[in-house]
Amino acid sequence: MTRPEAAALPGASDTPPDRLAQRASRLLSQLATRSDRLVNEGLAEVDARKWHYAVLASLADQGPASQAALSGRTGIYRSDMVGVLKELAARRLVDRSPDPADQRRNLVTLSSEGRRRLRRLDRILDEVHDELLAPLDPAERDQLVGLLTRLLQPRHPEAPPSP
């Protein structure tokens, strides 16, 4: 049996806060779900996917890389990276050529068409983020990004004191 108060809107003055509404993990999960939906829908309108954007942005920001390095940079599994690169190469968004330092592997570079495509995807994601973060002013958006970045940093336990 649910209490009538539990159905009240968050912030109602005479009801205690809902436990779920107080859990950062729950709120972050809901926001991530909404963000994923908006991003996927926005990119789908131009026949793109999140992984396409991740690879193109990585190449633009950090330069050419092997398939394994791109996997590490983007968090895309190596087995999935094969398909992503195949799609991007078929669209002439990336170029693959033998790595001069190791002929056994390919070096992936961003093509000029890939740079144009990345600019288009950036504009789409800017619009998506404007919609997602509409309730926040620019300073709050910057603060949110800063806080999320801190939360995603790996935690390193303090080194034991020296003897």
Overview of this protein structure:
This protein is mostly helical and 163 residues long. The chain has a domain at 25-136: Arc Repressor Mutant, subunit A (Orthogonal Bundle). It has helices spanning 19-22, 24-44, 50-62, 67-74, 78-90, 112-132, 138-152, and strands at 65-66, 94-99, 102-110. The chain has a three-stranded antiparallel beta sheet. Helix 2 crosses helix 6 (112-132), helix 3 crosses helix 6 (112-132) and helix 4 crosses helix 5. It is elongated. The model is unreliable at 1-8 and 159-163 (pLDDT under 50).
Q: Quick one: CATH superfamily of the domain at 25-136?
A: Winged helix-like DNA-binding domain superfamily/Winged helix DNA-binding domain
Large-scale geometry: elongated
Detail the poorly predicted runs: 1-8, 159-163
CATH topology value of the domain at 25-136 = Arc Repressor Mutant, subunit A
Distance between the termini: 59 Å
- Helix/strand class: mainly alpha
Mean pLDDT: 88
Q: Could you tell me the radius of gyration in angstroms?
A: 21 Å
Listing every helix as H and every strand as E from the N terminus to the C terminus, the arrangement reads: HHHEHHEEHH
CATH architecture descriptor name of the domain at 25-136: Orthogonal Bundle
Number of strands: 3
Determine and state the CATH class of the domain at 25-136: Mainly Alpha
Query: Order of strands side by side in the largest beta sheet?
Result: 1-3-2
Proportion of strand residues: 5-15%
Helix content bin: 55-70%
Task: Give me the oligomer status.
Answer: single chain
With helices defined by DSSP (H or I, 4 residues minimum), what is the helix count? 7
